[in-house]
């Protein structure tokens, strides 16, 4: 085997074609509403971590659990990258009619790209938060929030941070 690229070999690199059963696919006994996605800071140095908070509300009549998923998308990269990368998830139990505010950290190393070594690059990124992958079509409604953030500085090896 001489071609080690992942393009066309895994759903993360299929381009615009969506997988039949993406991560997080399934049904629920209730409905959830996501709101107040906050990224802090919205502009960060190349080696810094990103703090994320989001509010999850159980708007249905049943107590239930939701798997909250965070995905990262590189808007421009010097090398091929996935359409989006799962960077965090958490199963949360929420009583009917209640809400929970969740906090996450997206580490700098989760933004690293492989270019003969792991590198951090400046640029614009989009973070998605929801109960499914961005753009996923399911039988039950589930929303995915998104927010952009920027990374400043110069590209550097991950081990240099």
TrEMBL record:
Family: Belongs to the glycosyl hydrolase 3 family.
EC number: 3.2.1.21
InterPro entries reported in the protein's UniProt record: Cellulose_deg_GH3, Fn3-like, Glyco_hydro_3_C_sf, Ig-like_fold
Catalytic activity: Hydrolysis of terminal, non-reducing beta-D-glucosyl residues with release of beta-D-glucose
Gene3D superfamilies: Glycoside hydrolase family 3 C-terminal domain, Immunoglobulins
Residues annotated as domain Fibronectin type III-like: 66-133
Gene source species: Sylvia borin
Keyword Hydrolase on entry: yes
PANTHER family: BETA-GLUCOSIDASE (PTHR42715:SF10)
Protein's name according to its UniProt entry: beta-glucosidase
GO biological process, one term: carbohydrate metabolic process
Keywords: Hydrolase
GO function term, MF aspect, one: beta-glucosidase activity
């Amino acid at each position: 085997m001489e071609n080690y690229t992942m393009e066309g070999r895994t759903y993360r690199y299929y381009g615009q074609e969506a997988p039949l059963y993406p991560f997080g696919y399934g049904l629920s006994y209730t409905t959830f509403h996501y709101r107040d996605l906050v990224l802090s800071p919205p502009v960060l140095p190349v080696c810094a971590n990103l703090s994320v908070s989001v509010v999850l509300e159980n708007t249905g009549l049943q107590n239930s659990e939701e798997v909250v998923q965070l995905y990262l998308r590189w808007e421009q990269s010097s090398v091929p990258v996935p359409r989006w990368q799962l960077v965090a998830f958490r199963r949360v139990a929420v009583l009917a009619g209640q809400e929970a505010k969740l906090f996450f950290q997206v580490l700098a190393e989760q933004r690293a790209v492989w270019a003969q070594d792991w590198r951090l690059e400046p640029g614009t990124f989009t973070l998605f938060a929801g109960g499914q992958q961005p753009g996923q079509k399911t039988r039950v409604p589930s929303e995915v929030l998104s927010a952009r953030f920027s990374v400043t500085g110069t590209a550097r090896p991950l081990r240099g941070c």
